[in-house]
């Protein structure tokens, strides 16, 4: 596009310059010739009265002086053939002048002009002026060089202006293309430059408005899904507790399996809504943990659980999306309610890591891990926790560059330590 604009502007400027410079160059040449011939004619006319009335002795010094002052040759040919001033051949044009005819013609090396002077006592005389080519083209070469320089300067200026204009258009178009690719790739925070030139600015503002509207719609969808999912978790936890209270082990396992399936579907819905929403990869751990702990404290009061909190003041930036951290905290706290009896106390601690990020600890006074259990494997459940929830926590920690640590002997409760690294710069 940039090259095409430069070619178009260059061709247009060249056409204008040719249409302007060529006639002007011809005019300069014509003016130079006319000026030289006019000067010669004036010189000859000034000698006409003298040649018509004076004798040879009077004319000779005057003609010699005129020849010295003129760039060409000035001669006077008398009727008897005598030549005064510059030597001059007795050409056909001179013969024609002696017959009473004034004329001019091209001659080798210049232009020959003869002026017939009639009325002299000895017969007709001729004033001959020869104008050389150098005089006919005096100043033409310099004028043409100036004209060529001016034309080149105009062409260069036109190309420079066209290049700046083309560059701004190309840069704006490239920016629009890049922003479109970013939006297509899921980066809904990308925005085009609304100050782009001409109609590209209108397109950029329209694209930004579209991106903003898409972000709003996705945010509303994500919030609705997340809110619905969080509302569903509480009755799911209650169903799990009811299922574990059943006396029939097979029936309890069947209902618990169904609840686990619904739990996984709800978690998947949250994650899918969060991915479509294009959340940033940074969250304030202090704000998120406080908000989710406040949510679960309501259920803790209903199940007579004592809650111990030790939460550091924020902000505590970590390198994961807010929705990911919310799902992680919900999974850890949901495990406490799902796999410990009512009345079991638990605690939540949040502190700042020395290397940046946050350290989240969730501990309970429940039965802990069963011997030989691998709680980080998806779908494996023990008496103290669920593999599904801990797998979510592990993946969240790994995504930030942190780690998940489990501790606690069987029957002595479970402590889950989640180390989250800070956001990457």
UniProtKB/TrEMBL annotation:
Keyword Magnesium attributed: yes
Domain Histidine kinase: 227-424
Catalysed reaction, written as an equation: ATP + protein L-histidine = ADP + protein N-phospho-L-histidine
Domain HAMP positions: 167-219
Enzyme class: transferase
Membrane topology (UniProt): Multi-pass membrane protein
Organism: Pseudonocardia autotrophica (Amycolata autotrophica)
Subcellular location: Cell membrane
Organism domain of life: Bacteria
Disordered: annotated segments: 366-387
Keyword vocabulary terms for this entry: ATP-binding, Cell membrane, Hydrolase, Kinase, Magnesium, Manganese, Membrane, Nucleotide-binding, Phosphoprotein, Protein phosphatase, Stress response, Transferase, Transmembrane, Transmembrane helix, Two-component regulatory system, Virulence
SUPFAM superfamilies, sorted: ATPase domain of HSP90 chaperone/DNA topoisomerase II/histidine kinase, Homodimeric domain of signal transducing histidine kinase
Any one of the GO CC terms: plasma membrane
Encoding gene (name): baeS_1
GO molecular function: ATP binding; phosphoprotein phosphatase activity; phosphorelay sensor kinase activity
Name of the protein described by the UniProt record: Signal transduction histidine-protein kinase/phosphatase MprB
Principal localisation: membrane
SMART domains with a match to the protein in the record: HAMP (SM00304), HATPase_c (SM00387)
Residue ranges crossing the lipid bilayer per the database entry: 144-162
EC numbers, comma separated: 2.7.13.3
InterPro entries found in the cross-reference section: 2C_sensor_his_kinase, HAMP_dom, HATPase_C_sf, HATPase_dom, His_kinase_dom, HisK_dim/P_dom, HisK_dim/P_sf, Sig_transdc_His_kin-like_C
Cofactors, names only: Mg(2+); Mn(2+)
Keyword ATP-binding appears in the UniProt entry: yes
């Amino acid at each position: 596009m940039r090259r095409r604009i430069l070619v178009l502007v260059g061709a247009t400027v060249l056409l204008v310059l040719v249409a302007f410079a060529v006639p002007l160059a011809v005019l300069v040449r014509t003016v130079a010739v006319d000026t030289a011939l006019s000067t010669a004619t004036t010189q000859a006319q000034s000698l006409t009265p003298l040649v018509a009335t004076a004798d040879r002795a009077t004319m000779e010094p005057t003609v010699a002086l005129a020849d010295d002052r003129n760039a060409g040759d000035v001669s006077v040919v008398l009727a008897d053939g005598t030549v005064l001033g510059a030597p001059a051949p007795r050409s056909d044009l001179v013969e024609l002048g002696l017959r009473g005819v004034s004329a001019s013609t091209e001659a080798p090396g210049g232009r020959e002009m003869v002026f017939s002077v009639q009325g002299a006592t000895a017969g007709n005389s001729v004033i001959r002026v020869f104008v050389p080519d150098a005089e006919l083209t005096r100043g033409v070469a310099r004028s043409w060089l100036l004209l060529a320089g001016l034309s080149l300067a105009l062409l260069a200026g036109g190309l420079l202006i066209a290049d700046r204009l083309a560059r701004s258009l190309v840069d704006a178009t490239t920016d629009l293309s890049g922003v479109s690719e970013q939006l297509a790739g899921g980066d809904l925070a990308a925005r085009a430059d609304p100050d782009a030139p001409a109609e590209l600015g209108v397109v950029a503002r329209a694209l930004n408005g579209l991106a903003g509207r898409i972000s709003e719609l996705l945010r509303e969808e994500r919030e609705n899904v997340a809110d619905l999912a969080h509302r569903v978790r509480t009755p799911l936890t209650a169903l799990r507790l009811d299922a574990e209270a059943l006396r029939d082990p097979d029936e309890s396992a069947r209902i618990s399996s169904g609840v686990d399936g619904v739990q996984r579907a709800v978690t998947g819905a949250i994650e899918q809504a969060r991915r479509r929403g294009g959340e940033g990869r940074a969250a304030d751990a202090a704000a998120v943990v406080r908000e989710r702990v406040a949510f679960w404290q309501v259920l803790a009061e209903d199940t007579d659980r004592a809650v111990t909190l030790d939460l550091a003041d924020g902000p505590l930036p970590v390198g994961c999306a807010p929705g990911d951290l919310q799902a992680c905290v919900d999974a850890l706290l949901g495990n406490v309610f799902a796999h410990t009896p009512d009345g079991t106390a638990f605690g939540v601690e949040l502190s700042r890591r020395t290397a940046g990020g946050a350290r989240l600890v969730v501990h309970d006074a429940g039965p802990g891990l069963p011997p030989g259990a691998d709680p980080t494997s998806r779908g494996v459940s023990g008496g103290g926790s669920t593999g599904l929830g801990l797998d979510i926590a592990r993946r969240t920690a790994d995504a930030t560059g942190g780690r998940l640590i489990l501790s606690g002997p069987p029957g002595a409760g479970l402590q889950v330590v989640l180390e989250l690294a800070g956001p990457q710069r």
